[in-house]
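Deliverable D4.2, example record:
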Amino acid sequence: MERDTLTWLQEWYRSQCDGEWEHQNGIRIDTLDNPGWSVVADVGTVDAPAPVSEVRSGDDWVRCHVKDGRFHGHGGPGNLQELLEILRTWSRTSHG
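Output generated by the structure prediction step:
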């Protein structure tokens, strides 16, 4: 049985914490003023996934990419779970 996204995020974060990672790295979830969500997570080295850019409506959109070992995801006000699910999928390709 697959874990829900929030449980996965908590477990992923815990698995990254090794006494050093958490001092310089982390996960940041914030709001945007247009309105929307921002998710930034230090994922280390990942197989470079193709950036995602989907605009379905003014309030339903996502844009994600990885740069310098950091996941950057932005989305509409109802897209936080989708952003976290993209992070989840991309983190499965992590090597560091």
